[in-house]
Amino acid sequence: MASVQDQLEIKFRLTDGSDIGPKTFPAATSVATLKESVIVQWPKEKENGPRTVKDVKLISAGKILENSKTLGECQSPLCDVPGGVTTMHVVVQPPLEKEKKIINKPKQNKCVCVIL
């Protein structure tokens, strides 16, 4: 059986101040898995929800967490109190495809010809 220290209770704070969770995760859980959990639990009534792991950034103790890291590797001794709930902030990035389309859109040259 895993000890209490091997389990972390986390809630995810959305930009509007609402929360997802708290939920308990093993310390070996990857940040990418946490992001998948956020996507699955995202409130259906909220617009602009994330569709992929790449759409989500998780911030804990002022640091953006890397997908390849585990919860245990991301723990902060100052912020994560054993037995307490850790709050991670969720930032959803807008899809880059729309921005690329705007940037790559060919510009039309307008010529004004004046005949004298």
Overview of the molecule:
The protein has 116 residues and is an alpha+beta fold. It has one domain (7-92): Roll (Ubiquitin-like (UB roll)). It is built from three helices and five strands. The chain has helices at residues 31-41, 71-74, 96-104; strands at 7-13, 19-26, 56-60, 63-64, 85-92. A five-stranded mixed sheet has the order 2-1-5-3-4. It is elongated and about 80 Å long. The termini are far apart.
Question: How do the strands and helices of this protein lay out in sequence?
Answer:
Layout: E1 7-13, E2 19-26, H1 31-41, E3 56-60, E4 63-64, H2 71-74, E5 85-92, H3 96-104
Parallel strand pairs: 1-5
Antiparallel strand pairs: 1-2, 3-4, 3-5
- Assign the structural class, choosing from mainly alpha, mainly beta, alpha/beta, alpha+beta, or little secondary structure: alpha+beta
- What's the CATH superfamily, by name? Phosphatidylinositol 3-kinase Catalytic Subunit, Chain A, domain 1
Strand residues, percent: 25-35%
CATH topology: Ubiquitin-like (UB roll)
Tell me how many strands there are.
5
Main location: membrane
Function: May serve as docking site to facilitate the association of other proteins to the plasma membrane.
Keywords: Cell membrane, Lipoprotein, Membrane, Methylation, Palmitate, Prenylation
Protein name: Membrane-anchored ubiquitin-fold protein
